[in-house]
């Protein structure tokens, strides 16, 4: 059968991007404490095609993804991009993989959920060189209040969130990155002039997290956004590293 998808196109019109999106796909991630963690990802895969290609077989995207089914990490993420670019004969390849990552809940908050969830996304592009970025959303809760007269803890309350996108110089565990960010949040929450008073602002928390990220050797660069989610509106502050 004639392969019309790969026939030369003489119209010389570049298609900017072509691919598949919102693939719901089970993946296995590296987990520092438990070796591996299984979760579900939403995957977008697309390429930039040169004008002389009429099209590409969309099934090839899923075929490539299937070959890396058992272990998704930064190393394999790069290989997925390389295979997409090579097999699809594309000028550039792109992958976005969003997933939920779970960590054991803090012991002092044992009355609450035993696992904490974090929304993460790995994004990669490969043209001449690979450009990989990891993003994680860390919830920011109000400091734990004293228990009520009935001995029950008061609600922590949702203050906002810290959205951090990083590019790596060296390997770092997802857990270690989350712990680094949460440690900065804890430090800022305990900086109130009066014990128990929460004087945290989006500006002060952004600076505190940025200082921690800048001190981590494995992080090459970062982009940070801290949001305080109020009733009917929100405030925010952003900061980018000097790369």
Short description:
The chain is built from four helices and eight strands.
Descriptive overview:
This protein is an alpha+beta fold. Strands 1-2-3-4-5-6-7-8 form an 8-stranded antiparallel beta sheet. It has 2 domains: 8-128, Urate Oxidase (Roll); 138-243, Urate Oxidase (Roll). Mean pLDDT is 82; it is low at 146-155. The chain contains 4 helices and 8 strands, in the order ββααββββααββ. It is elongated.
Task: Give the topology.
Layout: E1 18-31, E2 35-48, H1 59-67, H2 74-87, E3 92-104, E4 115-126, E5 130-141, E6 158-168, H3 174-189, H4 202-214, E7 219-230, E8 233-240
Antiparallel strand pairs: 1-2, 2-3, 3-4, 4-5, 5-6, 6-7, 7-8
Roughly what fraction of the amino acids lie in strands?
35-45%
- Determine the CATH superfamily of the largest domain: Urate Oxidase
> How many H/I helical runs?
4
Cα-based radius of gyration, to the nearest Å: 22 Å
List keywords for this structure.
eight-stranded antiparallel beta sheet; Urate Oxidase; alpha+beta; 243 residues; 2 domains
